[in-house]
Amino acid sequence: MAYADSEVRSREVPDKDVRNSGNTVSIKV
Asked: Which residue ranges are recorded for the region named Disordered (predicted)?
């Protein structure tokens, strides 16, 4: 699922926000 997370993070939030919003994105996934 890690690869899917990275994919979604790239399209959901800017690269700089991936680190901060990573948890939020994971929940959305």
From this structure: 1-29
Taking the whole predicted model, whether its pTM rises above 0.90 is answered as: no
pLDDT tens string 10-29 = 566 555 555 555 555 555 55
Instruction: Find all residues with CB under 8 Å of 25, minimum gap 6, and list them.
Output: 5, 8, 9, 12, 13, 18
For residue 10 the two structure tokens come to 């790239």
Which residue's structure tokens are 């991936």?
A: 18
- The distance in angstroms from the start CA to the end CA of the chain is 10
Extents of the domains making up the chain: 1-29
